[in-house]
Amino acid sequence: MFESLSDRFEGIFSKLRKKGRLSDADVDAALRDIRVALLEADVALPVVKSFISHVRERCVGAELHASLMPGQQVIKIVNEELVATLGGEVLRINYASKPPTIVLLAGLQGSGKTTTAVKLARWFKQQGRNPLLVGADLQRPAAVEQLRRLASVDGITVFSELSDPVAVAARGVEEARRLGRDVVVVDTAGRLTIDQEMMEQIRRISSRLNPHYTFLVVDAMTGQDAINTAQAFHEVLALDGVILTKLDGDARGGAALSVKQVVGKPIAFASTGEKLADFDLFYPDRMASRILGMGDVLSLIEAAERTYDKEVAAKGAVKLQEGSFTLEDFLEQMRQIKKMGPLSGIISMLPGVPKELKDAKVDDGELARVEAIICSMTPQERRDPSIVNGSRRLRIANGSGTTTAEVNQLLKQFKEVQRMVKSAVGSTRKGKKGKRGRVMLPTLSDMASFR
Ligand SMILES: Nc1nc2c(ncn2[C@@H]2O[C@H](COP(=O)(O)OP(=O)(O)OP(=O)(O)O)[C@@H](O)[C@H]2O)c(=O)[nH]1
Ligand SMILES: [Mg+2]
C-alpha cells in the first residue's frame, strides 16, 4: 500500500536533506512536488489544499528559519501534518456502562463487512471482552454461513435467525444480554447508497439498536468513490468512524488520507489482508511514518513482542555475547523470526531499507531449507559445525532434501555471523565503535526486549 506515494516522498525528502539552507524557492518546489504526489495518490482536492497550506504556513514561519537543519525541519512538519490529516489520534473504545456495547457495521457490497465483523469480534476478545456476533445479512443465503465459518476458527458465537434484519439485530442484542456477552458486533447486508429501500433498512436497524459505535467498512482500493460513499452513509447513519479494508492491495492511499477531513470521522481500524490476524486499530502516526518512508518500526516491535518469546530471545542474546551461539540457537531464533510472518512483510516495515531490497522477492522457502538442514544435523554437529566433513555433509544434504553446496553455504553463513558478532562485541567491549557495529541477529532479539 501507498508504495508510489512513499516513493515520491522519498525522492522529495532526499532532495531536501541534501541542502544546507533552504531558499523560499526550494520550499516552493518541494511543496509543489508534494501537492502533485498527493493528487496522484487520489487524495481529495480540498484535503490536498489544506494540507499544503498548513505546511506552507509553518515553513515560512519562524519554525523553519530557527532550525539548524531546515530540510529535516520540513520533513518533521510534513510528518506532523500528515498525522493530523490521518486523524491524529488512535480510537479508544468507551465500553457501555450497561453492557453490551453495540457495534454496527455497514458498507457497500464486498467491502469486507463480514470478514471485518469477525476480525473485530476477535480483536474485542483479545482485549479481554466476550463478544457475540450477529448475522443480520439475510439478503444472501450464504452470508450467515460465511460468518459462522469464519467465527468458528476463534470459537466466537454467532447469533442469527430467519426473520427480518431489524428483528434479528434486536434479538441478537437480547441474546447477548441473556448470555452475559459484553460486546455485540452486527454484520449487515451490503448495500448501494442509491438503493433507497436498503438504505432505509440500515437506518431502521440503527434506530432500533441505537448502537454505541457505527462503523462504515470501506474498501481502500475504491479511492475517491470510497469517500463519496462514506459521506452518503454518514448522512443516514451518523457514523463514528471508518474501517478501511484491503490496505494490502495497491491502494494509492487517497481514501485513507481523505476520510477524516471529508467525512469528519476518523479511521478507527485498518485491515491489511484476508487473514483474521491482519487487523488492528488505525495508528495515524505509524501510517504517516510508513507513507513517508520512515518505516513502521513501532508495528514491527509490537509484532515482535506479540510473537517473540522473550526468554528465547534473551538466551540467544547472552549466548551471542559470550560467543557460544550454536546452530541450535540459530535454529531456535530463526523459528521465532518465522513466527512474525513472511520475511517480506518484516522487511517492508524496516526504515531505511533500500527500495530494491523491498521490491526483491524474499524467499521464505529459504528459511524452510535452512531449518531442514539444521534439523538433519546431529546435536553434536549443531554445537560444533567444524566436525562436518564430506560424508557428514552428504548425509545432511540427503536428509534435508538439499544439496551439499547448500549445506556448505549455510555453514559458511553461520561462521560469518559468528565472526561478525565476535568482532562487534569485541569492539564495543574495547569502547570503540566497530566497523561492523550493526549485527542483524542480536538486533532482532534486542527488539523484543526493547521498551
Ligand atoms: N486482501 C484483502 N482482502 C480482504 C480484506 N478484507 C476482506 N477481504 C476479502 O474481500 C472479500 C469480501 O469480503 P466480505 O467480508 O465477504 O465482504 P462483505 O462486505 O461482507 O460482502 P457482502 O456481504 O457480499 O456485501 C473476501 O474475499 C475477503 O476475504 C483485506 O483487508 N485484504
Ligand atoms: Mg458480508
What does this structure look like?
The chain has 451 residues and is α/β, with parallel strands linked by helices. It folds into three domains: 3-85, Four Helix Bundle (Hemerythrin (Met), subunit A); 101-293, P-loop containing nucleotide triphosphate hydrolases (Rossmann fold, 3-Layer(aba) Sandwich), CATH 3.40.50.300; 301-449, Signal recognition particle, SRP54 subunit, M-domain (434 Repressor (Amino-terminal Domain), Orthogonal Bundle), CATH 1.10.260.30. The protein contains 22 helices and eight strands. An eight-stranded mixed beta sheet has the order 3-2-4-1-5-6-7-8, sandwiched between helices. Helix 11 (254-263) links the parallel strand 6 (241-245) and strand 7. Helix 1 (3-18) runs antiparallel to helix 5. The longest helix is centred in the C-terminal third of the chain and has 26 residues, at 404-429. The two termini are 28 Å apart. Bound molecules: guanosine-5'-triphosphate (GTP) and magnesium ion. Magnesium ion (MG) is lined by residues 113-114, 137, 143.
